[in-house]
Amino acid sequence: MSTTTASKPATSAAKPTNYKQAMFVIGSMFFILGFVTWLNSLLIPFLKQACELTDFVAYFVAFAFYISYFVMAIPSSMILKKIGFTKGMSLSLIVMAIGALIFVPAAQTRSYPIFLAGLFTTAAGMTLLQAAVNPYITIIGPIESAAQRMSIMGICNKLAGMIGIFVLSLFLFKDSEALSAKIATLSGAEKELELDLLASRVIVPYIIMAAVLIVLAVVVRKSSLPEPAADDETVDHGPDPFGRTSAFQIPYLVLGVLCLFLYVGVEVLAIDSLTLYGESQGLTKEIASKLGIFSLIAFTAGYLIGVALVPKVVSQKTAFVICAVLGIVFTIGALLTSGNVSIGFMVALSFAHSLMWPGIWPLAINKLGKFTKFGSALLIMGIAGGAILPIVYGAMADAMGDRQLPYIIMIPCYLFMVYYALSGSKKGLPQD
């Protein structure tokens, strides 16, 4: 590909050669996002033990990680506007590497606040990456098949999550039952020493992760990608063709941000709470730590169905509604059963979640025109739902002494998603 071609902004669809290269690079970025994101499902129970935390405090792992999306979404949009998508992706990987390296002093001092600082920094890099890759994959081809492309990216994301959970669980939960039993018999300095050794288990995998991220940053920086822009995006800062002067004047976008907030909240809660929930239902730490893999397999199955059926057989909106209804059904199933059956329903929730992100995003970003980048940033801010719902759940679990009943908070979230798909996504939508 020539330098001239690569430097030209792409419209809603890149040329074939550029398109294939872009899909490969963006797929790699979604792989990185998945690998790092789903490690939280292990860090929550691991740090709960290593730092001696309550459920509520342990879920600040999710809070520190996902609140970064809220804080950094608008700055990320400004950065992308200034330096472009490719440089933005490279910078995001460097920031993520810094976050991973912060885990080293955190482990050496067994300091939970420093661990949270590392998570926040990593997520800050991921926010920039998300702000680049999500509109990129939506705009680079026809809007009608955006859900299909995002489903393909979702497969990369969830495959990486499976690999990440499996590999990190080998580092963190080796001989976990024997170690837990040993720690229970210790006190004072002996217990502190054993907990220090436990915390140090994160050092090697996170140093390796940082090194890989730095290498990828260099590779992405040297790649040549088309710079996408919405078809109707202009440099004019006045009213758009539909008379809108602010993104906040677009009801279907604002409702879409709330919908995505609730969706990410239930998605994160369903997976990040699964290890501790599995333990409460009688599973060993070693087995419970791998439950997230089954959730991501369920996710991937849903994505594959999306690739096969959307939009050829089922529309994006219909698939979204079906998934939201399944979320209600599976949550009720998890609440009314126990043991492996209840765990199975919690795993099945990830299948229900599989087509929600690719369903919400195109509905919310449709016909935004010049507000596409800012609207994307608002949607990225909605990822903060993953910060809020888990700590609400954790507080309820501590207060009730039960990790099952608090899952009831997910039902109204799914009900709102049904509303958004059927009605909310039409509020203020310009008519051709």
Automatic annotation (TrEMBL):
Arranged from A to Z, the UniProt key words for this protein are: Cell membrane, Membrane, Transmembrane, Transmembrane helix
| Membrane topology field | Multi-pass membrane protein
Record localization: Cell inner membrane
Question: Would you say which domain of life the source belongs to?
Answer: Bacteria
Set out the biological process GO terms recorded for this chain's protein.
D-glucose transmembrane transport
The record's listing under Gene3D superfamilies reads: MFS general substrate transporter like domains
Q: Which InterPro entries match?
A: Glc/Gal_transptr_bac, MFS, MFS_trans_sf, MFS_TsgA-like
Which molecular function term from Gene Ontology is one that the record holds?
A: D-glucose transmembrane transporter activity
**TM helices/strands, residue ranges:** 21-44, 56-76, 88-108, 114-134, 155-173, 203-220, 252-271, 291-311, 318-337, 343-364, 376-393, 405-422
Q: Does the keyword RNA-binding apply?
A: no
What's one GO-annotated cellular component?
plasma membrane
Q: Which Pfam families match?
A: MFS_1
Q: Which family does it belong to?
A: Belongs to the major facilitator superfamily. FHS transporter (TC 2.A.1.7) family.
Q: What does this protein do?
A: Intake of glucose and galactose.
Q: Which PANTHER family match?
A: L-FUCOSE-PROTON SYMPORTER (PTHR43702), N-ACETYL GLUCOSAMINE TRANSPORTER NAGP (PTHR43702:SF12)
What is this protein called in UniProt? Glucose/galactose transporter
Source organism? Chitinophaga skermanii
